[in-house]
């Protein structure tokens, strides 16, 4: 009969001849969870549901607070600056822009003169001026070559002069702006243009 193999025999567990299995890298001594996650285990409530709240929520809170702190520190950075040089101004673009601006100014001028004329005429300023001029130039009313001051304040004449002045301003402003762009381009080829520094808003 063969003798039974004891715990310390060649075929038994833990014997001198049996290989020893090394522990896994993520396991703690004793076959449990890692040290960072072994602080709390899921518990079972009275209704049979598992409560998994434990130490895993603490790293999440720490990560969230660190992200918020990173955003706040990122908003406090200094604004960037860009140093640029204006080399060329396109004459065609300058002409279009100046024409539109001068046309808008012409409309504003015409409307302002029309409104002002209406207000002064309603108050009676023009009638007072005409009466004063007639008294000074023709006190007895018998002079044939007296000055007709009422023709000075004719609305057609005033608005016509306003339109003429506005049209001349449109032509002059457009031409001068285009000529200024050409002169700037010629000067920029010599001196290198105008240096401009841009900065981000804080």
UniProtKB/TrEMBL annotation:
Parts forming coiled coils: none
Highest taxon of the lineage: Bacteria
KW ATP-binding (keyword) present: no
Keywords: Membrane, Transmembrane, Transmembrane helix
Membrane-spanning residues: 97-120, 158-184
Organism of this sequence: Spongiactinospora rosea
Compositionally skewed regions (Gly residues) per UniProt: 1-17
Name of the protein this chain belongs to: DUF3566 domain-containing protein
